[in-house]
Backbone:
């Protein structure tokens, strides 16, 4: 290893304008842990003073914000947690929630009515995940997560922001705990100061129809990625001048994008996968493109002509491997009931079962994508070093 790649123990521990944005992707969020481990190997004391998370990325974001320690310690603890997970420790699957005539059956007898009312409001019951997060974060689900306020008070953290969708209004809600934040709002979004609880994490990660919605402040909330048109915006409004975005979406080459992954009529698994990518993964690419155009425009203008706007330095890290396609190799590890379901949806008929990857909370898969994350950091280390050193650079949208 050359001198340029030597460990930098004291690098960037006072960067108040540096933000990390952690996107969604269900079990794919383990990839972000690999990125964090890889970065921590070279920058063990790096501090992200602004942390933004959505969907499954909200869990990693909250852990980073709450843990009292170095980035290396946080990444190691996160990796231990993810590598010990399995589907049973995240959710419980019950065939009864899929019965298409459950309501009709329930009307036959009071007993069946009580059974229907007792069922979770999603395909799975996330009680195991709630219990896991409570245990890991040492707090009851509805109590303030310890550590976040302490990190804010010490100056190690400026703000944590997590997104949910308020199903009652259709608004994206940016929940913020921090010292300073911009309260910019619009018709489809609002800002809500809060003290984060486990319930906020569960709500942000509540994949529609699969994970049940969670009640926050009297209303039901779900996955924050559903209507989040500009995932980089929260970090900008919290004062970030540099954003390290960790995406779980693989960026296909033109040749890959033009190659069919299914023959004949598309199975349900293929259609669900396209919906998942459109709602939760593709949006980051669109926002990166917008920021790139804005940066290019601002860089061509004199400072006094920018009306207070400043370019945002952005680096996007994304998988070098298609994590959806990779999930197909680990489908055999799924619990029997879930395996039967995804096969019934046609997961075996497509080469890239993206929907399956969201639910693949199995150690064989999560360990593998953590390793991929670490390797991707190694491959892009010169870019990371320049970015974290604050050197001027162009927006990088590809990985």
Residues:
């Amino acid at each position: 290893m050359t001198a340029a790649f030597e460990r930098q123990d004291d690098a960037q521990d006072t960067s108040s304008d540096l933000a990390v944005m952690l996107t969604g992707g269900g079990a794919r969020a383990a990839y972000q842990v690999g990125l964090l481990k890889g970065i921590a190997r070279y920058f063990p004391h790096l501090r992200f003073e602004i942390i933004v998370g959505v969907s499954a990325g909200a869990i990693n974001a909250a852990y980073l914000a709450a843990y009292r320690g170095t980035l290396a310690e946080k990444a190691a603890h996160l990796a231990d947690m993810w590598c010990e997970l399995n589907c049973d420790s995240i959710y419980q699957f019950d065939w009864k929630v899929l019965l298409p005539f459950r309501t009709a059956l329930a009307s036959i007898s009071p007993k069946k009515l009580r059974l229907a009312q007792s069922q979770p409001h999603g395909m799975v019951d996330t009680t195991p995940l709630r219990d896991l997060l409570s245990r890991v974060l040492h707090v009851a689900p509805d109590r303030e997560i310890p550590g976040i306020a302490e990190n804010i008070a010490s100056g190690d953290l400026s703000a944590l922001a997590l997104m949910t969708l308020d199903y009652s209004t259709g608004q994206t809600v940016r929940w913020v705990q921090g010292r300073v934040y911009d309260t910019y709002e619009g018709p489809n979004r609002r800002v809500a100061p809060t003290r984060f609880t486990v319930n906020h994490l569960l709500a942000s990660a509540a994949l529609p129809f699969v994970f049940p919605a969670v009640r926050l402040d009297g209303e039901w909330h779900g996955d924050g990625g559903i209507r989040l048109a500009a995932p980089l915006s929260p970090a900008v409004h919290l004062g970030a001048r540099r954003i390290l975005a960790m995406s779980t979406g693989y960026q296909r080459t033109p040749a890959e994008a033009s190659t069919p992954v299914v023959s004949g009529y598309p199975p349900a698994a293929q259609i669900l996968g396209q919906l998942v990518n459109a709602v939760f993964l593709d949006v980051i690419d669109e926002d990166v493109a917008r920021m790139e155009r804005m940066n290019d425009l601002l860089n061509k203008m004199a400072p006094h002509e920018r009306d207070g706007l400043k370019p945002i330095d952005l680096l996007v890290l994304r998988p070098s491997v298609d994590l959806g396609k990779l999930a197909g190799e680990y489908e055999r590890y799924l619990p029997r009931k879930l395996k039967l379901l995804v096969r019934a949806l046609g997961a075996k008929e497509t080469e890239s079962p993206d929907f399956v990857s969201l639910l693949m909370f199995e150690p064989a898969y999560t360990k593998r994508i953590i390793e991929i994350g670490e390797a991707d950091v190694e491959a892009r280390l010169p870019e990371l070093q320049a970015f974290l050193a604050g050197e001027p650079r162009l927006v990088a949208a590809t990985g």
Remarks:
- The radius of gyration is 21 Å.
- Residues 1-15, 100-108, 115-119, 393-399 have pLDDT under 50 and may be disordered.
